[in-house]
Design brief:
single chain, about 90 residues, alpha+beta, Structural Genomics Hypothetical 15.5 Kd Protein In mrcA-pckA Intergenic Region, Chain A, five-stranded antiparallel sheet, 5 strands, about 20% helix, globular
């Protein structure tokens, strides 16, 4: 399954176009390798997604073509969720 489609179906990112933009900016890795929106995602892959001040690490558990909202979280498992520190707050 394409990376951008997986992120949209799993509801990690709400819109496929936004998922495509983030991937094409080089802010997503699959198993340590930079990924494009057209990269293939397989079960047990480890994705690291860099949002603005947050880095999300997930493991792919399941690939489904049709997903209900309640079942979206069954497609992945969150391994780590790290936030960047706000250095301006310390000044």
């Amino acid at each position: 399954m394409r990376l951008d489609k997986f992120l949209k179906l799993s509801r990690v990112i709400k819109r496929r176009t936004v998922a495509k933009e983030i991937a094409d900016q080089g802010r997503i890795t699959i198993n340590g390798n930079k990924a494009k929106s057209s990269s293939n995602v397989n079960v047990n892959d480890k994705l690291v997604i860099s949002f603005g001040n947050k880095t999300l690490t997930i493991q792919v558990l399941n690939l489904m073509e049709i997903v209900k909202k309640d079942d979206a979280d069954k497609m992945y498992k969150v391994i780590n969720e790290a936030y960047a520190r706000d250095f301006n707050a310390e000044l």
